[in-house]
Amino acid sequence: MIRIVLLGAPGSGKGTQCKRLVTQYGIAHLSSGDILRKERAQGSQLGRKAQAYMDRGELVPDDLVIEMMLQAIKASPKGYVLDGFPRTLGQAIALDNALSKDGGRLDAVIYLDVNDTIIEDRMSGRRSCPTCGAVYHIRNLKPKKAGFCDHDGTPLVQRPDDELEVVKRRLITYHEQTRPLVDYYRSKGLLYEVDANDGADVVDVRLRRIIEGLGGSNKKASTVAEDRSDV
Ligand code: AMP
């Protein structure tokens, strides 16, 4: 069972990498942003409460998100990769407490490190399909027919929170509230840092090297440390 957190700014590639990890390792992808968007689309009480915060690029209050994610974790006994959670120190501590209550702990927290200018470009150029959720980019990952989803032909949209002004606000929120988690997990000896300024395929190789060092391939800690030095 693998329990991993992918930590990084919005637009650092967490979602893309998580989808690959799910295919490779058969673990659940628990994305707090995706779950919140689903709740909104369903018009649930949680979705309605979260809506205004999300559209402003602010964080949804801790108590709402913590309860939602602990439920998702309970429903994933084969392991998971957390994407977008925890995002505050309060959320990280609540997660640690909940896991240790059941005698468990995280195996690793992988930090995808990306420059803010690259993030602004990635996010403001991102377009997604409101029907199937597929994600494109106006320059780096174009659909076959401009403006339409390859899978179902639905017109692509820009998420309101991917507009440049909101992206800038989300980055400020990230630096203030989420970035401190890097030091928190480093002090616990759980942090692995990955240069994620490169393309998805390169980052994928760096991630897999770390995950396979966690025990899946019986590597010793020293070998993992060597792997970490060149990612
Ligand atoms: P994401 O798709 O992860 O960038 O999340 C989209 C939005 O959902 C964020 O800008 C927040 O408003 C909200 N959100 C997602 N995850 C969290 C979290 N762990 N804590 C608070 N708000 C969150």
Could you explain how this protein is built, in words?
With about 230 residues, the protein is α/β, with parallel strands linked by helices. It has helices at about 15-25, 30-40, 45-55, 60-75, 90-100, 115-125, 165-180, 180-185, 200-215, 220-230; strands spanning about 1-10, 30, 80-85, 110-115, 125-130, 135, 190-195. The chain is globular and about 50 Å long. Residues about 215-230 have low confidence and may be disordered. The protein binds adenosine monophosphate. Adenosine monophosphate binds near residues 32, 53, 87 and 91.
Entry summary:
By secondary structure, this protein is of the alpha/beta class. The protein is 52% helix and 14% strand. Bound molecules: adenosine monophosphate (AMP).
Which characteristics define this entry?
231 residues, five-stranded parallel beta sheet, 10 helices, 7 strands, disordered C terminus, binds adenosine monophosphate
